[in-house]
Each structure stands twice: as structure tokens, then as C-alpha cells.
Amino acid sequence: MTQLVQQPLPDHVPPELAMALPLFSRRVVYENPQETLIPAMHADLPPITYVTNIFPGDQPGWLLKNAADVQAMLRDPDNFTKNGMGKWAQNIGENWLVIPTEADPPVHTAYRKALNGHFSPQKMFAMKEQVRERAAVLIDTFKDRGHCDFIVEFSEKFPIFIVLDLLGLPQERMAQFLKWEKELLHTNDWQVRGNAVKCVKDYLLEEIEARRREPRDDYITKVLDFDVDGRLWTDDEVLGHCFNLYIGGLDTVTSLLGNIFNYLASHPEKQNELRADPSQIVLAVEEFLRAFAPVTAFRIATKVIEIQGQTIMPGEYVAFCSPVVGRDPAFYEDPQDIRFDRKAPHMSLGSGIHKCLGMHLARLELQIAVEEFVKRVPEFRTKDGFQVPYFVGNILHVPDLQLQWD
């Protein structure tokens, strides 16, 4: 399961805790990591591990296996920072932050004060019929065909339609946006990643400048009027926030949908539970978020810290791997069992001050996607003879999912 590391390690890292893990190898495999790798990690790994390939570019960091340790970290902004966590700007020699994701208190509090109202449950609920129409139109293109390429025909397009609508960006550029998104989030090559950062940054700056010249009725125009402590946001802050919406809105829900529908395709009884009683879908989505969360996120230690008896030095990365935390057997009873009545708390949308800004929109998108799909498509399954691929890396997802139905 693991590969012990031979190269020199920092003096405070015990050699027995240092290893490369297959879950972060950033490649396609054909075994379901939620059923194999993750349960094995809970069975075999210590509570904290120095994982040499945990960050893109095969850079090291500490993995916390237990949900309780992760929860404590996420609620501790004094000992952990998110400043520059993703190394997006640093990769191209700049120093703007992804807003509010990479901001720390007290300025983070001011950012969220400006932003929360725009992503409130009420604001997102007002988008419900628009979101439903996007889902229905996509499903209607293939529902009578008896099969679909789920990722290409639905899960990639559906959440991106919504985000592009919100930002006022052109739907006809979707193919280009998807290319940049994959180069940003699904590569281990820092040059590819950096080139994509430059492309997205340049494009967003053009759009921001266009709104300054000619304001529109869209979210980017609204951002230009946001303030922090009585001053308007700087150009870097506006860019950093738009970049945040781009990388968050174009990928996470897509990855979740692939994981969820891969599960439903192999568990027709679960599909039919939701068909028979759609009122279960709200709680089912919370269970899906627990079990199929895709993202590994990070904090950076700000001082010497001890976790589970291990010293962590300032500047070292500490990982919150939501696919691992969501299946912690010490935190969840029978975590491999998907139960729509579980009602268990999860951290898949974050915890503490950095709880996901778009969590209400993400929930709405997932609920409507499941509801419309099971309503419009009969019992579906993985296409005969198709072997499901799984991408293991910082965003655990199914890159290709071929479905069919009778």
C-alpha cells in the first residue's frame, strides 16, 4: 500500500512515518480507492504520517488520518494558516491570494462579511428553478437514447453552466475553461499548472476590466463594489476572489457527481430508494458528501506544534483529506455503508471559519442533479464491459463514466 522513503528527511521526521501513498500518486487506476486504498489506510497507517507526495509536484506534508484531529486543526487559525496555501500566485512569481480561501483573520472576517450575503441559503434558493432547468435540459438530450457519457454530457457541464451564469462569463468558452481547469487541478507538472494559472489570470483580468468600463448585471460587477473596513477591494483582491470562484465552481461539484453516480450505477437499490421517495434526497446528499468527498486541502503550521506526539515545524503542510476523513471508522459507524438516514456531521465542505463559501450552492446543485436524474432516467448501470477509471490525487474523481439503461 505504501512506499517507504529513502531520501534524506528533516531531522524531526521519524523514518518509519515517512512514505509515499498511492492515494496521492496523481494517475488513473482501476480499483475503487474508496473501497480499497482508504479502508487500508485507516487499518494500517498511524494517526499522523509524513507523506512525501501529498502536494502537487510530489511535495511533502503531514496527513492527519483521524477526523477528530482534522476537526481540531480546521478550528485553529492561530496555529495554522491558509496564506498562500495553494501556491497559485507563487507558482508564477506573484503574491496575490485566493480570496477568501487563502486569507487569515482578521481580514478573512471582513472578506466573509462582504461575501456571505451573496451566497446565503436564500440567495441560492432563489436560483433553484434556474439550476433545475439547466439539469433538465442536459438530461433531456440523452434520456431517450438509453446511454450517456455522464462526465462529458452532464457532470462537467451542469455546475459550470451555473457558475458561468453567476459570473456572467460566456458559455461558449466552456471547452477552454475546462481545459484550463484540468491543467490547474489535475496535473503533477508545475509548469503546466503555472501556465494555466497565467491563462486564467489574464482572462479574468480582461473580464474584470470590461466590467469596470461597462458594468453589467452579474457577480463580477458586484465584486467591484465590495469593501473591507471602508475601502474598496484592491485589484489583487478582486482577481483573487474571481480566481477562487473559477477553481471552486468548475471542479468540485463535477468530481462529487462522478463519484456519486458511479456508486448509484452499481447500487440500483439505492437509486430506487430515491425514486420511490425523493424526500430522502436532501439527507442522501449529506451522506454522499461524507462518503464521496473528493478534495485534499491543506493548512500550513505557523509555529512548532505537536499532534499525536509528533512535532510539526513552522511552514510545514498539514493535510485535510476529505475522502479519508469521511470514512474514519473511529468517527463514523460502519463508514463504508451508505445510509440515507445517517444524519452524521461531516467536514466535506470545511469546518470553522473557512467553511466553504459556496456550500449552499453546491448542496443545491447536488440535490437537483440527483432528483432530476432519477426522475427522468430509469434504473441505470455502468455500460456493459466498461471498466471505471479512478483518478487518485488531490481531487479524487472518476474521469470517465459510461452509463446505460433499458
Automatic annotation (TrEMBL):
Keywords: Plasmid. GO terms for molecular function: heme binding; iron ion binding; monooxygenase activity; oxidoreductase activity, acting on paired donors, with incorporation or reduction of molecular oxygen. It comes from the Bacteria. The keyword tRNA processing does not apply. SUPFAM superfamilies: Cytochrome P450. InterPro entries: Cyt_P450 (IPR001128), Cyt_P450_B (IPR002397), Cyt_P450_sf (IPR036396). It holds the Pfam family p450. Gene3D superfamilies: Cytochrome P450 (1.10.630.10). Coiled coil: none annotated. The keyword Secreted does not apply. Belongs to the cytochrome P450 family. This is Cytochrome. It comes from Novosphingobium resinovorum. The lineage of its organism: Bacteria, Pseudomonadati, Pseudomonadota, Alphaproteobacteria, Sphingomonadales.
